[in-house]
Amino acid sequence: MRTTFLLAALTFLAAGRSFAAPAFVQPSIVLGQAPAAADDDEDDPPANPTPTPDKKPDPAATTTTPAATTTTPAATPTVATPATTTTGGSAEQMKLVNGAPLFNPNVGVHIVEQKRFSDSGRFEVTLYPVSVQVNGKFTQHFGTMGQLTYHLQENFGLMITGGGNWFNSESSLNGELVEKARVEAQAASSLLWTWGVLGGVEVTPIYGKFAFFEGTLAQFSFVLNGGAGIGGTRHQLKPESARPDGSISPATYGDTGYRFMAGLGAGFRLQLGQRFAFRLEVRDVVYTARVERVNGCGSEDLRAMDNALRGGRPVTSAQVGATCRVDTFDGTDPDTGLKRSNDVPLALGLVRNPSSDVLNNVGLYAGISFLF
Questions:
Q1: Which are the contacts of 19, defined by CB distance < 8 A and separation ≥ 6?
Q2: Angle between helices 59-74 and 76-85 (to 10 degrees)
Q3: Which of 235, 305, 339, 372 is the most buried (most CB within 10 A)?
Q4: Closest by CA position to 128, among listed 363, 286, 372, 285
Q5: Is 72 within 8 Å of 92 (Cβ atoms)?
Q6: Which of 109-118, 154-163, 203-212 has the lowest mean pLDDT?
Q7: Residue 112 burial by Cβ neighbours in a 10 Å radius (0-12, 13-18, 19+)
Q8: Where do the structural domains in the chain lie, given as residue ranges?
Q9: How far apart are CA 190 and CA 251, in angstroms?
């Protein structure tokens, strides 16, 4: 009986264990607990794997990335300095221009370059072979002028200009008035300029350069000048005329003395190399014109000489002032072959009623310069 009891107990326990095990495992499967699954099969991966913490994005890394990106533009100006250094430029060339490096390829810098050859402290000799009056109404002038300029600075210099008009005569208009209408311009309006010397200054407000035939660099400048001085004048006494035999009777002139003169000019100067330059200028020479004396003789002197001629006496017998050059009205002119005494009544008519005017002689000057 005891044996039977023990067998029944064991059978009960075995049966209880076989029934209890499914009841215990079922909740672990429903709840998805990892230990129960691991006990059953350690090699199978979990059905719904949970992301591991190390695979999650790091907030710190995400934050530092914009910071690194932000610091990149700040470092951009420092990159230009090595780029400038690698060009091999001098310290003077690496200076900043308006806050930008001179050799930065991303920066455009506009500069005004100094002239290749400086004029400061140099002399310039200019020859104007032909100067021609361009505003002639009652007069016409052609001459040759010269100029010496000392350049105190690059854009400022002192100058002295001188020369003469080897051709100076009344214009064809005045000749037509005399021939056809028996009238002529007033003496002051037709006064002729024979020579002059003027001193003044010259400035160069604008200059530049350009390529000339690909191999030469030409420097050009716009020049302004002004000065004052004195000059000689004369007036036509007898116009040129035709004789009955067909020959030409030349014109005669009388000296009308010195005049105060002032001049203003403007033009261009083209320099090729270091020594030579070409000039083209327009100048206006202004001078007063009042005819009161001819050959130093006033109206009283000329009247005395005219009375002597009317009385059959030579002009040298007349009582004249100290300034009157009476010999200029005596004898025969070797150039014209005419008696000079014939000009006495013409000169008297010229100064009997003196006239005044201010003349502007506007001339075109073309020349070549040498610098040293």
A1: none
A2: 40
A3: 305
A4: 363
A5: no
A6: 109-118
A7: exposed
A8: 2-40, 54-101, 123-291+355-371
A9: 14
Measured in whole angstroms, the distance separating CA 210 from the mean position of its chain's CA atoms is: 12
325, 235, 252, 184 alpha-carbon torsion, rounded to 10°: -140
Q: How far apart are CA 355 and CA 350, in angstroms?
A: 9
Mean pLDDT is highest, among 83-87, 95-99, 151-155, 331-335, for 151-155
Structure tokens at 225: 């000048």
Contact 315, 344 (CB under 8 A): yes
- Whether 139 contacts 169, CB under 8 Å: yes
Amino acid (1-letter code) at residue 125:
V
Closest CA to 162 of 180, 177, 149: 149
Q: What is the spatial distance between Cα 131 and Cα 133, in angstroms, rounded to a whole number? A: 7
pLDDT tens digits, 151-177 = 999 889 999 999 999 999 888 776 666
Beta bridge partners of 364: 132, 282
Beta strands in the chain (DSSP E): 96-97, 100-101, 123-133, 139-153, 156-170, 192-212, 216-238, 241-242, 248-249, 252-272, 276-290, 356-371
**Residue 202: count of CB within 10 angstroms of its CB:** 22
Q: Which two structure tokens, joined as six digits, stand for 248?
A: 């030409």
Q: How far apart are CA 338 and CA 169, in angstroms?
A: 19
Strands, DSSP E only, in 273-355? Answer: 276-290
Please report the DSSP string for 243-261 in residue order: -TTS-EE--EEEEEEEEEE
Residue with tokens 């002051």: 188
Strands 156-170 and 192-212: what pairing? antiparallel
Q: What is the third-level CATH fold of 123-291+355-371?
A: Porin (2.40.160)
Question: For residue 42, is pLDDT > 50?
Answer: no
Question: Closest Cα partner for 200 from 262, 152, 282?
Answer: 262
Taking the C-alpha atoms of residue 359 and residue 284, their distance in angstroms, rounded to an integer, is 10
Nearest-angstrom CA–CA distance, 35 and 31: 11
Q: Quick one: DSSP state of residue 179?
A: I
Q: How many helices (H) and strands (E) does the chain have?
A: 7, 12
Beta-carbon count within 10 A of 201 CB: 14
